[in-house]
Amino acid sequence: MKSLRILGLCAVLAMLAACGGEAGPDTTLNTLQRGLPSDPETLDHHKARSTQAAEVLRDLSEGLTGYTANGELIPAAAESWEISDDGLVYTFHLREGLRWSSGEALTAEHFAAGMRRLVSPATAAFYAQMIVDIENAAEIVAGEAAPDSLGVEAVDERTLVLRLARPTPYMLSLLTHPSTFPIHPGSIAAHGDGFARPGKLVSNGAYRLDAWVPGSVVALKRNEHYWNNAGTAVDGVNYHVIVQNNAELNRYRAGELHTTSTVPPDAFAQIREEYGDELRVAPYLGVYYYGYNLTKPPLKDNVALRAALSMAIDREQLASKIMGRGEAPAYSWVPPGVNNYEATTLSFAALSKEDREQGARTRYKEAGYGKENPLQIEVRYNTNDTNKKVAVAIQAMWREVLGVEATLINEEFQVLLTNMREAEVTQVFRSSWIGDYNDAHTFLSVLQGGSAANMPRYASEEYDGLMEAAASQVDPARRRLYLEEAERVMLSEHPTIPLYFFVSKHLVSPQVAGWGDNVLDYHYSQHLSLKAAE
Amino acid sequence: MVHAAPGGPFDDERVLPADVEANIAAAYHLDEPLPKQFVRYLGGLLQGDLGPSYRYRDYTVAELIGSAFPLSLKLGAIAMALALIIGVGTGTVAALRQGSLLDRVVMGFSMTGISIPVFVVAPVLVLLFAVKLQWLPAGWSGASGIGRYVLPVFTLALPQIAYIARLTRASMIDVLGRDFIRTARAQGLGTPTVVRVHALKPAMLPVLSYMGPAIAAILTGSVVVEEIFGIPGLGQFFVRGALNRDYTLVLGIVVFYATLIISLNLLVDILYGVIDPRVRYR
Q1: ipTM score here?
Q2: Closest CA to A433 of A501, A370, A381
Q3: Which of A475, B194, B228, B274 gets the most CB atoms within 10 Å of its CB?
Q4: What letter does residue A408 receive in the DSSP assignment?
């Protein structure tokens, strides 16, 4: 009997505990509820790396430049700037009366200190390479120079000068990245590296950090000291961490979210039918590709084979039937929509299906393969439904057109990454690249000789030479010609098979106004406003 | 062992330049040989320090466990309590009305409860109560107060209710047929008194033995439930930690769980002695 009483008591206690006064998130009317696919790994903008951390950080903090809802570059903390004729010196003029969320004045020195902290080896920042074009940045990252020697200087409280090691036409767009944002010196002094927590974090954006429950929600509140506070419509933003995209969809359906971070792939058609205009699909700065391991046979030194495999794939069918969520078939490496750039396309882009397949067979034969001695090849991809569907489709296309016997191997993401980096067992592997800034360079530099992201190990003196030539060009029009030529050279050697270009997909409630589609998929909360529910 | 899984906590499709990577490895001591890392970890562990999380870099592992465990515990405890109350209740009723329609309905439900996995029950409940009827929140962070406990707790408790109901019924039927119950009835006691005073306690023994596995089941079930409802509990951190190669977080949770399970087993053994007069410890 005693046991029953104990159990009963436990039950009652547990129930009482549940009723205890826990502070829930703010659900008041003028608070924006957004879905976030996982927690920011940190809100220290120099140490952050993921897109979800950057998304939150763009609300919390502000750089010298920013974007409109539609992705046009605009002045942010800087109201104007001058660029020297040789493209090497940038002089920024900050807005008058800039303040931190604590009310303290924000000066040019805080921007300079932020950039020095970014490249300092002690910070161990993932995005240290972001400002590698600034004088001495590379040496500082490598530990060969002191952080103080970085080419940034606060001339006075409102003037910041950046000296570059080489012309960097996309410098202004780099400065929209959270890793280049200023640092609040008082926070570092008081809390060391542990400043990025609720109650400690001092920021300079439209919002300040109010609460953060890891695994659940990041809550932001209006920053009264923000220079454009009057232009900020929404009082608070709750980023709900929802890992499963089906769970996110359900919460949108239940009216708990105003915007989602994505939509479940398998429910796409149904969602489009059900939600119509609430579903926002827009081109995104990313390419999904298959890479070749160019260090090992059979793909090493066999351009004909690489071309044949690429040509045999029906990208239209892949994009529209297998994916079918607005993705564009990829016939180039650099996606459409990139500023001041016209991507060259693979030579067979304009061919009819029959001609293309015939061409593939010719190249396949040229490479030394045929019906009697078909190519046997392994395709590695990380475990995921989409990757599997794509791999199965490509396996079938190769078999049908060329008679290639492809083996599909799915691996956990981290395993695939290790294999790709070692380039020992891989032959063909799935990967993707997402642009960091709106410039062709963010894509083309991937395949440069010394790039760590060059998974295929593409090595071409001609390509590297053209990239170097582009890097030293001040004139955007001439630089563009070099970049376009570099892509043409690279595509003709087929180090990768570009398959399709990504699209961003969000559900946006009709209550939300001000949402703009852009290739970077940046959606600043300060551009959004809420209409009263009907 | 955790390190045997390929890849590291900071690997990503976006590969880092060598200099940057070296700086990061140095900052997190990942450049040291494994034995040295192990000794460093053990040294910290002895002082109760589980280290910093690699994935949640603004938090320590101890902080994360400290905030997540009470929540998981609370959910688990409510679910367990619910399972016991409803399970024992329905099980007893079913045993008393053995073979009746009520018995069959209860057993039918419990069979369903056992058979349908949590990851099916949860989304169905969400669709019904949160999306269609809009009575309850679909996710943890979308509401405050008691409402957000209802669906996760019920989802967690359902299989346990079912299991405990079946156990109670079987054991109650067995006990009701014993001699001492006949004696009790012969003394003129009514059914409620017989059940309450004489039958319930011995009939609870199998249920008590099942508590260990039940707690384990609730712990594993909580992994799924926490992820579906977005509850910042220990189960979610464990799974995410393993997938992200957050060595310290995973190790920390394993150490924590191990300590917890050993303590719980000890507790159940001691409770056995309290309840069953035949078991005595010397």
Answers
A1: 0.80
A2: A501
A3: B228
A4: E
Cα separation, B127 vs A454, in Å, equals 45
| Contact yes or no for A128 and B23 at CB 8 A | yes
**Which of chain B's residues have a Cβ under 8 Å away from the Cβ of A23?**
144
Contact predicate A204/A98, CB 8 Å: yes
Q: Are A502 and A265 in contact (CB under 8 A)?
A: no
Residues 6+ apart with CB under 8 A from A127: A46, A48, A49, A118, A177, A179
C-alpha–C-alpha distance, residues B158 and B153, integer Å: 8
| From B64, B85, B271, residue closest to A11, measured CB to CB | B85
Q: Do A251 and B142 touch (CB under 8 A)?
A: yes
Tell me the shortest Cα–Cα distance from B226 to chain A, in angstroms. 9
Per-residue confidence band for A109, with pLDDT thresholds at 50, 70 and 90: very high
Average confidence (pLDDT) over A1-16: 46
Question: What is d(CA B8, CA B3) in angstroms, rounded to the nearest whole number?
Answer: 8
Q: What is the model's pTM? A: 0.82
Place of tokens 């579906």: B228
Among A24, A122, A215, the residue with its CB nearest the CB of B236 is: A215
**C-beta atoms of A143 and B15 within 8 A:** no
Interface contact flag, A452 B6, Cβ < 8 Å: no
Which residue of A lies nearest to B28 if distances are taken between CA atoms?
A124
A361-390: pLDDT as tens digits? 999 999 889 888 899 999 999 888 888 999
Looking at chain B, list the stretches that DSSP marks H as alpha helix, in order from N- to C-terminal side. Answer: 18-27, 34-46, 61-96, 101-115, 118-125, 147-176, 179-186, 191-193, 200-229, 234-243, 247-275
Q: Residue holding tokens 């690489």?
A: A306
Q: Over the stretch B27-54, which tens digit does the pLDDT of each residue have?
A: 777 777 777 777 777 777 777 677 777 7
